[in-house]
Specification:
Helix 2 runs antiparallel to helix 16, helix 3 (about 95-110) packs parallel to helix 8 and helix 10 packs across helix 11 (about 255-265). The protein has helices spanning about 1-25, 40-55, 95-110, 120-125, 140, 155-160, 165-170, 190-200, 210-220, 245-255, 255-265, 270-275, 290-295, 305-315, 330-335, 410-430, and strands at about 30-35, 60-65, 70-80, 85, 90-95, 225, 305, 320, 325, 340-345, 350-355, 360-365, 375-380, 385-390, 395-400. Strands 1, 2, 3, 4, 12, 13, 14 and 15 form an eight-stranded antiparallel sheet that branches. The protein has 16 helices and 15 strands. The chain is α+β, with helices and mostly antiparallel strands and about 425 residues long. The relative contact order is 0.17.
């Protein structure tokens, strides 16, 4: 009984320490702005309800249908301390949603003949073949089958930026933690190091990911997203609000899935889970430093608007082209989005994932749409970028108030998505 009493007391203390200060903090006006098609009023009402209840404190939700904007709203505060409202052009870190943007960039390179999914990475990057990596293909690397979730001692983004040659050799010396191609395990942070080096090696001009994405996708298709943000644009980035250690602990003891993940990281340092997250020594509160944001790393450090994510994915929802403007050829689009790897994830406990080439596949949870999938990538804190090729929808959601969620399970996003699909049939009937 003593242990139970101690645990109960700890929970009460955690709740009091975390939430009491908020009760006495001055209340800011609930802000919700933007545009929505009248058929999607329920989505707008859901967003407003979440803001008024305090569930949503800052973010944006954007939806395209058949290449046209049908919902584009933002809410709350980009910087609560300064009273700065979230605006139509507010940007934030997409975290792992960046991986989906990088995967589209790789597909664009496949389209141009600069990369081939089926070829070994070592075909483009000979040094990669060391220590059992010679047979890892481009598509296996993109689909988290390489076993390369850790690179040894922890590093930081400045080492990656400032010592590129030595860092590349460091990546080459890594030995896979499991036999490549036999299973997948989420390469949470190392995905960016390996994929970014691969595209630099394969590009005819040896441009980096920042340049390739900007010159081949962002500029020609007017996508307000950056994998390496120009410092002159940093004033548009919302201030990140991250969970404290106490909040993270409370989240872990109130969610079984989070508890298992937390336990693997804290108590099993030799687990694949712990190894996958002990790669970069960087605190969350430094991520919105303009110097850090300018580096660019396609595993987690893409910065843009929710609108830019939805707009990019609108091309994907339409098979690669909209009104004669082609992002990807149909055959490349099909190859990129076809299932490649499925089953239990060796890094994320309790997860049965399905991967295409760099993007994840998720079955919609709504009875009307049973058996239909969306494709894209979620990100830490609740971020989402996805497209629905059956219903021709694309969605971008960003929030600067990070939660413990990151795999399409944030209640704020799910509320909006459920309302979106509730409205969809009525909207489509009105188009006929």
């Amino acid at each position: 009984m003593g242990l139970i009493r101690w645990g109960f007391t700890l929970i009460l203390f955690t709740l009091a320490f975390t939430y009491l200060p908020r009760l006495f903090a001055p209340k800011l006006l609930p802000i919700v702005e933007g545009y929505f098609h009248p058929k999607f009023r329920k989505v707008a009402e859901t967003l407003r309800e979440n803001v008024e209840s305090g569930k949503e404190r800052g973010g944006a939700f954007v939806v395209y249908h058949r290449g046209e904007v049908v919902f584009d709203m933002w809410a709350g505060y980009a910087d609560e301390e300064a009273g700065r409202r979230w605006a139509s052009d507010t940007m934030f870190i997409a975290f792992s949603t960046t991986k989906g943007v990088a995967a589209i960039t790789v597909a664009r390179m496949v389209d141009k003949g600069w990369l081939d999914y089926k070829k070994p990475v070592a075909h483009y990057w000979p040094g990669f073949a060391q220590n059992g990596k010679g047979e890892i293909t481009v598509e296996q690397l993109l689909s988290h089958e390489g076993g390369l979730v850790n690179i040894g001692n922890m590093t930081n983004l400045f080492e990656y930026r400032d010592n590129q040659e030595e860092f590349t050799h460091r990546l080459e010396r890594v030995t896979p933690l499991w036999k490549p191609g036999t299973a997948h395990g989420y390469h949470a942070l190392t995905f960016g190091f390996y994929v970014d080096t691969l595209v630099r090696m394969a590009d005819p001009k040896h441009r980096n990911m920042t340049q390739i994405f900007r010159e081949e996708i962002a500029e020609p298709f007017d996508i307000d997203f950056h994998i390496g943000l120009p410092k002159s644009l940093s004033y548009r980035v919302a201030r990140g609000q991250y969970m404290s250690n106490l909040e993270s602990f409370f989240a872990a003891i109130t969610s079984w899935k989070t508890f298992v993940l937390f336990s693997r990281i804290m108590f099993y340092p030799e687990s694949f889970t712990a190894k996958a997250v002990t790669v970069i020594d960087m605190k969350n509160n430094r991520l919105t430093d303009p110097e850090v944001m300018s580096i660019g790393q396609s595993a987690f450090l893409g910065i843009g608007t929710a609108r830019s994510i939805a707009k990019l994915y609108s091309y994907m929802s339409m098979g690669g082209s909209i009104k004669g403007r082609q992002l990807l050829k149909p055959e490349t689009w099909k190859l990129m989005t076809s299932p490649f790897s499925a089953g239990p994830d060796l890094v994320l406990p309790m997860m049965n994932g399905s991967w295409a080439r760099g993007v994840a596949i998720r079955e919609l949870p709504y009875p009307k749409y049973k058996g239909q999938n969306v494709i894209g990538h979620p990100g830490y804190g609740g971020q989402v970028g996805q497209f629905d090729p059956v219903n021709k929808l694309s969605v971008g959601y960003l929030t600067n108030y990070a939660s413990q969620y990151g795999v399409w399970d944030d209640p704020r996003f799910l509320d909006l998505e459920a309302a979106l699909y509730d409205c969809l049939d009525d909207y489509v009937r009105g188009l006929k």
